[in-house]
Model the fold of this input.
Amino acid sequence: MQRLIEGVHKFHHDEFGNYRELFHKLSEDGQNPHTLFITCSDSRVLAELITQSQPGDLFVVKNIGNIVPPTDARGDTNSTAAAIEFAVVNLQVSDIVICGHSQCGAISALLGETKIGDSTPHLRDWLKLASPVLVTIEKNYSHITESKARGNAAAEENVLFNLENLRRYPCVQKRLSDGSLRLHGWFFKIATAELFAYDPMTKQFSPLVGEK
Done:
């Protein structure tokens, strides 16, 4: 906690001056982010850092495994759905990014490499939302036995699965139909800080270079 407190003081005394006008403008005008960025709670994945975004640019949702619950999910699994609706309907974002990553603990648990016990029932039930990804891996990737490669394949398939869930939200469907919203699937490689974007034409994740 002391490190956090020291960081707060450092920001206020050393950094805030660089952002004073921006924060004042944001406080007066409210937020107007251009992108909803859904990514994992993993502490190594920082949306603003890897995209070099400023305060007010991104509406960020972080959860275990960057999961988008089905539209009929209720109870403990509805906060992400609420954020999606708020970003799409109220904030009118123009883009939504779902960003998975390498070495994902949620994916490891999904593949059975990390055990989830009775002491974490919310985590267990949350990961069940992504169980169709495991079916895809067992069906299409049985030839991949190396743990790291299998994990990356599952993380990428998880991004695509959640994009499909996202497309089923009525508010998303409405914006997609009028051409005012775009969806993107990204994969972040932690070791090299590389970003890869899914290309529907090639059906591959390719290095994110010069994408518009």
